[in-house]
Description:
- The protein is mainly α.
- The chain has two domains: about 25-175, Serine Threonine Protein Phosphatase 5, Tetratricopeptide repeat (Alpha Horseshoe); about 185-320, Tetratricopeptide repeat domain (Serine Threonine Protein Phosphatase 5, Tetratricopeptide repeat).
- The chain has 16 helices and no strands.
- Helix 3 (about 60-75) packs antiparallel against helix 4 (about 75-90).
- The chain is elongated and about 85 Å long.
Amino acid sequence: MVRASGILPTVPETEARVDSSRAARLNARVITWVLISLCASLQMACAPGPDTREETSVEGVAPIVRDAQRAMERGDFDAAIAGYRKAFERTPWNTRLESSLVAAYAGRAAAAGRSREGLRAAEADLRTALGIAPDDPALTQSLAAILLELAARAEDPESAAALREEARHYAPDLEARTPKVQLAVERRLDMAFDLVERGQLDAGIDRLERLHAEYPDRPDAARLLAQARVRKGTELVTLQDYRGAGDSFDRAVELYELLAPCDGSRCDTTELRLAHRNRVVAWLSAYEAVPARQALADAERAGLRLPALRAEIDRLGTSPR
């Protein structure tokens, strides 16, 4: 499978990518700073004072709180959250425990990392913390920062706009000074390619179909999608799902028609021939004469000659299934 690089970027395109990279790094620094500030402010607010034992003197709560504090000190946020929540549920009037629980969620959010999964985990923790302390400005600022980073990594403009809109609701000033950045097309192509190469064909094809719909004039997206469809069709043939394979090869051929002529610049004759031939074979194996004849006609119109397959189709038309 070829990862086609396409046309080299012009100078303005290159500058735009550099600006996007710089903006993405700025977004990451903003998020890190906001989350660190949040953790520091919450830990100061809920740091245990000399009267902690008195405030949590209800039977059975003091040992739980001590264990949660120790867990917090060693960075075991899961244990800290479990302990503080248990203590707070027993003493719901205890504002110090409420702050401690919120700080534990904020700490876990800050430690979640900047991967997509980490950002989603941080988002969930901050939303939970806001459910406990809905008027805390540090929490709203931190959640807005996470939403802005997710917007920068969104794969479609609608999702990015929705995330920025919610961030604006929580922290309009932060949203206004955060550059609008969306995941570059090249990066999205690389991610889809990696999925296909790892054998996660359905996920890779889904991403490539979205990319092709958004950027129908990009030959590299169309070519990668066509190659992935051929690979998917081959996989379905091995599973004896010949109709599913035929559908996948149909889509591949449709995409190659958009790339024509396959003269080596946008696609090559080897991959084109493979798609057409496998398409005919799949429909023949499914005993579907009509789509098999159509597949053969399309192949011949593309300049391919498949005499052995034509003979097979002729026999299929005169033989019972």
